[in-house]
Structures are given as C-alpha cells and as structure tokens.
Amino acid sequence: MRTHIVSLLLVLCGASPGVSQSDVPLLLRRPAISAAQLVFTYGGNLWIVSRDGGDAQRLTAGPGTENGAAFSPDGKWVAFTGEYDGNPDVFVVAAAGGVPKRLTYHPGVDEVVGWTPDGKSVLFLSTRSSYYNFAPKLFAVPLDGGFPTEYPLPIVAAASLSPDGSHIAYVPHPQWQRAWKRYRGGQTTPIWVADLKDSHIEKVPRENSNDFNPMWVGGTVYFLSDRNGAVSLFAYDSKSKQVSEVVKNDGLDFKSASAGPGAVVIEQIGALKLYDLKTHQTKTLGVRVAGDLPQVRPHFVKVDPKRVRNFGISPTGKRAVMEAWGEIFTVPSDKGDIRNLTRTPVVAERDPAWSPDGKSVAYFSEASGEYNLEIRDQSGLGEPKKINLGNPPSFFYSPQWSPDGQKIAYSDKRLNLWYVDLAKGAPVKVDADYYEGASFSVRWAPDSRWLVYTKQLPSFLHAVWVYSLEQGKSFQVTDGMSDALYATFDRSGKYLYFAASTDVGPSAEGFDMSSNNRPQTRSVYAVVLAKDQGSPLAPESDEEKGNEPKLDEKDKPKDEKDKAKKEEPPLVRIDFEGISQRIVALPIPAKNYVNIVAGKPGILFISEGPRVITESDFPNLTQTLYKWDLEKRKVDKFVEEINDYTVSFNGEKLLYRKGEQWVMAGTEEPPAGGGKPKPGEGPLKLDSMLVYVQPRDMWKQMYRETWRIERDFFYDPNHHGLDLGKVAAKYQPYLDGIASRDELTYLLEDALGEMTVGHMFLWGGERPEPKKVKGGLLGADYAQENGRYHQGLRRGKLEPGPPGAIDAAGRERQGRRLPAGGQRARAARVGQPVFLL
C-alpha cells in the first residue's frame, strides 16, 4: 500500500506555503476558549487568536504534535499534550507565549482534558495505573509540578468538574470509532455525574445515543450528542434533570467543544463556531492562519528500506527493481546510480517486473485515473506504453512476463487471473478463484505456451491447474485431497513442481479462532509432464560407458553444433491423461515451505517458515532458504533468516531481503559468511535512493485511493446504500485546508464514518517523529507523605529482602531491596525528578 509523508499546503494559486487562504476551509481542531482568546491545533502546533476570530499566531512549535489545549480558569495558562521529548505528556505554556513546561514524566500517554476549578492543577487521562490500555483513569497534576493525584473513578474517557469541584461529569468508557455515524451498538457513550464524596452516580437521560465532551458551566452540563441526528450541542440541567438541544446542527458533525466565560466554542469540520450562553446565538468565526508549515513544504525524502513494497530482479541480476513511495526505482548491484524510472510524485505505480530481455519494466499505474498496465524502457527515458485493462476497474497484482517477452500474466482484486498479449493489448481471462485469500502464484512455462497456477476449491484447499494458451482451457493437475501451492515449471520444461500439505485442513477456512496457530508441513513434489518422459527419480547405477564412436559434425545435436547461438526454449508437452499417476515425491524433508522459485534446469530455491505462522510474523516472515539440485538429488541450506527473495531469469543471481538489507548473491554457492563479496554481489547500496514529496498533491492521491479501496474491497458491493462518489465530493473541499498528516487521517475518519460499519480503522502515514527520551519505571508505586515520596512495590508491600538473596546484578543483597539495576535512588522532594546515581 502506498505510504507517504503528506500534509497541507496553504497556498493561493502560486503563493508560498506560509500564505493563508481565506476561501479554503481549515481543519482547526480541539479549540479551547478563555474570556479573550481561542486556542486550537493546526498543522500539529497550537495557535492562538482573539475570541472574535482574526489572524492567529503560533503559540507552540514542538517537534511532534501539540493538541488537547485547555485554558486555565483565569486565562493565563494553556495546558496541552505535547511530544517535546518523544512521549505524549502534559505541558503548560503561558497564553502570552513562552517556553512550555513539562508536568508529567510517565512513559505512558498522558492526555490533557481540563483544569481544576481553582486553576491550581491540570486534569489529564492516563493508563498508568489501569489494568489494561483501553481503560484510562483521571488524574490531576499541580501547575507548579509534583506528584499526580488519581480520582476515584475506574474508567474515564472525558471529564469536567463542577464549579465547586464536588462533582464530576464524565464519560465512563472510551469508544473505538467515534466517527461511526449513527452508531447504536454496545459502545455508545453515556455521560454520568458522580458525587466525589461518596461516588454516587446520576446518569444523564438518553436513549442509547453517543453523548460525549461534557462541559460544566454553573448548574448546567453542556455536551455533544448525536441523539437527534448529526452531532450537535445539548445541555443538561443538574437541578431539573432535563436535557435540551441548544444548537441545532444540519451539517457535518460537531467534533469537539470547550466552555469558557460566557460561551462555548465548537469545532465542526472546516469551521469554528461560538455559542453565546446569554443570547443563545451561534456564529461562525473567521480565523486566518499564516505561517511556516513544515509538513506542507515540497521536499526530498530518503527512502527507508522498510518502505520498499514490491521488488524484482533484472534478467541477469545486474540491477534490482523496487517500488517505494509509489515510484519505481532500479538499483545497481555494484556500479552506477539508482534510477527513478517514473518520477511521478502525485501518481501511484505498483508491482514492477523486469522483462526477460532486460529492455523494459512493467508495472501498474493509476495515471489515467484507474490502474492500468504500463511498459517503460528500463533506462527511464521516453514515454511508457499504456495498456488499458478493461472494465470494471480494479486493483491488479503481480505482473509476470512470459519468457518470450510478448505477454504478461496478472491477477486482480476480483479474484480473476488474466494475461495480455502486449501486441494485441486485449486482456484474456484465464480463470477465477472461489474465495478471497491467497494469490494464484502464476508462473509461465519455458515456451510461453502454458501457465501454471493454484486456486482454491470449494473445500478451501488449493489445487494445481495448468492453462493452455493455444486451447484457451484450464486443466486440473492435482486431485484436491491436499493443499497444493507454489507451483512452478522446471526450466527444462520436463517437470512441474509444487508443495502440498495434508495437515492444513483445520486452518484452511479461517472462520474463527479455532483455525489459528495450527502447525503445518508441506512436502515437495514433481509432476512428469509427458507420458514418455522418465521419472526424475529413476534408479541410478554406475556403469562404464566404454569407447563411444565419435559423431560427425552433421550428426551432433543442434545445441552442440553452435554453442554461441542463442538456445531455443524447450517445447513443453503435457499429457493430461494419467498425469496424477506421474506425480513423485522429491526426497526433501517435510517442512512448512512458504515459497518455491525455479532456478536453472533442475534447480529449485525453496523457503521454509515457522511451523506455526501468526499474524505477527508478517510482513517480516523469517525464512530459511534451501537449494534443491535434481541432478545431485540433494537439498542444502543456502541462507538463513531472510524475509523474501527472487531469482533472476537466467537463474544465476538471487536477490533476497534480510531485515532492512537487500542482498544480491550468486546461485552457485551460498553467500559468503563475512568475507568480501564478489563483484556484483553483496548488500545493495540504498543510501542515495531519494523521492521528491509534494505533500498536498500526494494527499489528494491518497484521498482518491481511499475511495477506490472502499469501492473494490468493502464487503457489501452496495456500500450500505451509500453513494461513495457523493460522500467523496462532500469532503473533498477540505483537502486544500490540511496542514499535517494527522489532519488527513482525521478527515478520512469522519468521511468513512458515513459508511456506518465497525472496524473501519485508519493508521500509519509519515509524520514528524521527535527524538524520544526514554522513561522508565522502577517496579514500584509512589505516594506523597510529609512532602516526600513514599515507595511501595507494584505487587505488594516493600519488605526487606532475606539476607543472602541475589539481586538483578548478581550481587548478594543485605536487607532492603535495591532499585532496578542495583543502584540506589536519591531522595527528592515532591515535584523533583529522581535520577539514579
């Protein structure tokens, strides 16, 4: 999947990124209000502006993201969650500007939610004492610094204290998908009012609506709710116990709100609104933002090896071809420069494959608006040849060149297998799979007249199939009583190889967790294609050859007459009658093989994975690669702990990935263990692989791609009755007002919430990564006592250790237990960090 650094570009026509756009709606998020000012998050930083709107000024400029701002009751301070040291912690900064001060130091996430009414402490959520990460609790930390105090509530997702601090309005549990429109499932969020003296609870009246963002003003709790449709502002009178809607909303949902002196500021997608508590009138504020927005600026990015998505190898192994950031690169094995073949930073290209003659590279491109096939000169010069892959549009995968270089086979998201004759340009459908899941793993025969692939049967097991291009017909090779995968032709054209398992059945369906974590093994088999071809494992006998007569030149085989002449590919003949009786098991130990790639005639490269493969093993599945030699009838370990591999067309070079390193190696001998590699072999040099990033345009590509993904991958082809085109058009105007990668995710979350479906999660993407200063825990809880820290063990009372016990450093302990690492902790006053001496 294409991943990039994307951000907002605030430009008007050709203006610079720092110029504001008055006509473009901006995603000003998480606003807070004081008597005179507003503060909000934009572009990952806090900005401050007059309460009536106008030109905003940057308040913070941290290396990460600052959000969740909250004004102190007197309006002098702004508390927020910042990442200055790499971890989300509580910070405060003067509303007039200044250096932020850090208040919390726990290595977990601390999220600001407000202030105590007296303005002496900041309220924040944390899982530091929770039994699991989805159960945050409420804490208060003094403005002057010190030890946080925990409120006596088991789970708090949002909170606001009453003016006298005696009661709290809070949401008693979090929600996975707040943007899920009209959700009425088990995670709908109520608002409860708790008396902090005795924990007595009153529930704000509701009928399974999503109520959130409580704000206590006088005797009224204001909150956001979707009880009447789109999320709008409501009020709960704590005396009459009645709920009323105070701001009706017929547009996009209200996302957050904050109460201050005489008003509530409301965040709506692309707008800030101010609700006057006296006049009960609402107005939209005009806020302008002008400034340096680093995430927006077009720039070069060094390609991290982790970002290489798909790869291949040139026919002789002189170069590797790689997909990264939606561009297609070729990388020399030894000499030369890295080439960006496509240079289209606002278009996604995928799945490169090098032609057998070395002249061209094929890949899929969305330059036309939908994915189609392009063939480009390997030099990167000239215009590509474009082949329309027909309708309906789809996502396409794994282009495979025929050995004669005239055809390409590929599959699509709709479970179809195709090939296209490059001269004719008309795709031909080969077959279709039964179920979503494994790919066809299609391979060509050496003479380019046959395709071999595997597909699922109604039993969920896979069978090997062969397709004849001349007959336009597929033939089943294996009987379906085992799960057969990774089929490939031998380069001699005499045999077909595959791996099959008879113990995969319980894990084949994947219907529930009973299918998970089942150990599997596979054996490797050969199919003798022609009925008059002998078995590759026929008994051998050492015999003297005697004096054989010399052949005249005219009687010599053609390939011996002219070694310099290019060898013609072997003609592959397949006799399907009785073919199941010509399947032989190769003398290769049964293991959990996960891929087979053919090398030179009689050579196979077979990779083994763990016997039990789990989701956590991907995308870096650890494999051991073996080399099978048919002539020697022997399999040898070739290289260990790799993650992926491929073999060149001539069978002489191997390209494999090991962690974040890509290595070119010869296929005759295993890679050298530590010595100097041969010329053209060894790790590829990727340091100079750069991509030019145009954030705003790349964001637009990601936005288009999102709706294509939903169109083609959503389980319901009618998309719950939603017109995807209309929804995409409704949210598209906000793309030009995005200033950070987080804001793109925020916009997409709200837009995809229209699909009203669970597990619609978004994550990933490039964002600024501040340098992380690691924080640790000493395995003990602390409390305040007489102005000093009091220590207690996390799982019990701290007691003197028995004499003679051994500490973690291997030393004998005498009496009191030592802190982590065997070092003594310095005593400190409350509010001072404690360092180990």
Which helices and strands appear, and what pairs or packs with what?
Elements: E1 29-33, E2 37-42, E3 45-50, E4 54-58, E5 67-71, E6 77-82, E7 89-94, E8 101-102, E9 110-115, E10 121-126, E11 137-142, E12 149-150, E13 158-161, E14 167-171, E15 192-195, E16 200-203, E17 211-217, E18 220-225, E19 232-237, E20 243-247, E21 254-260, E22 263-268, E23 271-276, E24 282-284, E25 287-289, E26 299-302, E27 308-313, E28 319-324, E29 327-332, E30 339-340, E31 349-354, E32 360-365, E33 372-377, E34 385-387, E35 396-401, E36 407-412, E37 416-421, E38 427-432, E39 443-444, E40 450-456, E41 462-468, E42 473-476, E43 483-489, E44 495-501, H1 505-508, E45 523-528, H2 558-561, E46 583-585, E47 593-598, E48 603-608, E49 623-629, E50 634-642, E51 644-647, E52 653-658, E53 661-666, E54 682-683, E55 690-693, H3 695-713, H4 724-731, H5 741-752, E56 780-785, E57 788-793
Parallel strand pairs: 4-25
Antiparallel strand pairs: 1-2, 2-3, 3-4, 5-6, 6-7, 7-8, 9-10, 10-11, 11-12, 13-14, 14-15, 15-16, 17-18, 18-19, 19-20, 21-22, 22-23, 23-24, 26-55, 27-28, 28-29, 29-30, 31-32, 32-33, 33-34, 35-36, 36-37, 37-38, 39-40, 40-41, 41-42, 43-44, 44-45, 45-46, 47-48, 48-49, 49-50, 51-52, 52-53, 53-54, ...
Q: Return Rg in Å.
A: 33 Å
Structural class: mainly beta
The largest β sheet comes out as: 5 strands, mixed
Helix count?
5
Specify the overall morphology. elongated
Name the strands of the widest sheet in spatial order.
1-2-3-4-25
Number of strands: 57
- Percent helix, as a range, is under 10%
Sequence stretches where pLDDT stays below 50 over 5 or more residues: 1-21, 794-831
Measured between the Cα atoms of the first and last residue, the distance is: 48 Å
Q: What percent of residues are in strands? A: 35-45%
